[in-house]
Amino acid sequence: MDMPHTGIEVRRPRVRSASFRALEKASRAEGYWMLTRLLAGWRDGSNRVSRRGEAVYGGFYGDELVGVCGLNVDPYIQGKREGRVRHLYVAAPFRRHGTGRTLVRSAIVTARDHFPALNVRATDEAFPFYEKLGFMRIEGEEFMTHRMEFQPLRRRPPLGKGHE
Question: 9-149, superfamily in CATH?
Fold first, then answer.
């Protein structure tokens, strides 16, 4: 992989594609299993990323898939419908060049329209990454280290007679 010198294009990856499998293989070689779990959930139907507000984002450098970020309904929050950033992985040569930030920002934009909050469970070394994106650190939660709350969207009242 060449080092990125231009922007990353975000689009929906095909989970069953050869490029996705190649990125998943690279992640496993580094000891990361998030893409393996994403593929397993896709294959067995337990996580098709198909509920309202859910998405998988791919970061593409040209035609090469170099990063993935998932947005799911948070399975760890009972009784509420909140979003969760999941399965974030960026190929090693593309880290610290904005790829992960671009992918998570795409998830944030979607999440604002569908969820009152967006949660994440991050490793200690990823705390600054999420905090720079606006996530607030949460203490004492087993399945969440950071959270971003959204202001409710204000709906405009319909234009009525005399307000046209």
Answer: Gcn5-related N-acetyltransferase (GNAT) (3.40.630.30)
Over residues 92-138, the pLDDT tens digits come to 999 999 999 999 999 999 999 999 999 999 999 999 999 999 999 99
What three-state secondary structure class fits 119? strand
pLDDT (tens digit, 9 = 90+) per residue, 39-83?
999 999 999 999 999 999 999 999 999 999 999 999 999 888 999
How far is residue 116's CA from residue 76's CA, in Å, rounded to a whole number? 15
pTM (predicted TM-score): 0.88
Quote the tokens at residue 113: 């329209």
Whole-number Cα distances in Å, 121 to 74, 127, 130, 135? 11, 9, 10, 11
Which residues share a beta bridge with 84? 72, 119
Could you tell me which of 154, 103, 112 has the C-alpha nearest to residue 130? Answer: 103
Entry field: residues in the chain = 164
Indicate the burial class of 32 (C-beta count within 10 angstroms; 0-12, 13-18, 19 or more).
middle
Task: Return the residue matching tokens 């992985």.
Answer: 89
Do the Cβ atoms of 82 and 20 come closer than 8 Å? no
Domain edges within the chain = 9-149
Are the CB atoms for 125 and 161 separated by under 8 Å?
Answer: no
